[in-house]
Amino acid sequence: MGLYGEAQLTGKETTFSCDDMIVSKTDLTGKLVYGNRLFFKMAEMSEKQCIGQQHNIVRHPEMPRSVFELLWSTIRDGREIFAYVNNRAASGNNYWVYAHVTPSFGTNGEITGYHSNRRFPNRKILEGHIIPLYRELLEIERAAASPKQGLQDGCKRIQQLIDDAKMNFNQFMFSLGA
Question: Are the C-beta atoms of residues 81 and 170 closer than 8 Å to each other?
Fold first, then answer.
């Protein structure tokens, strides 16, 4: 089982300790160059299966594309981002994380890759805010006439939410726990 969604979704969520951290690093194109043991354990894949593959090897199909669009545009711009992410393991199980994704910089100040630390998410925030929001974004994306239009519409909805809250995306994420 394994790579890029060959396994059927099980609907079963796996978890990890709130004291643990999942770590991964990618190159500029999003290919994995490092993962810690917990990354491979939660992905239910070996280091050999993952290194050199696109990080989206663990992407869950119920994650809104617009959230990833925001994530990638933010880190490519040299800024950090905090976001809740639903990942998929090789078995088809899923696992939620609260991700802090940052660009990695070389000595010349250029972005050389990306680094992500993921912690166990706050269940109240997930169930009360994130899961309903992501369902809404998925509905918006899927209702569009094309995938491109769906992505644009989802991104507009995210922008509307943060504009209405008079915050940037990271502030909006932090405010959900207040």
Answer: yes
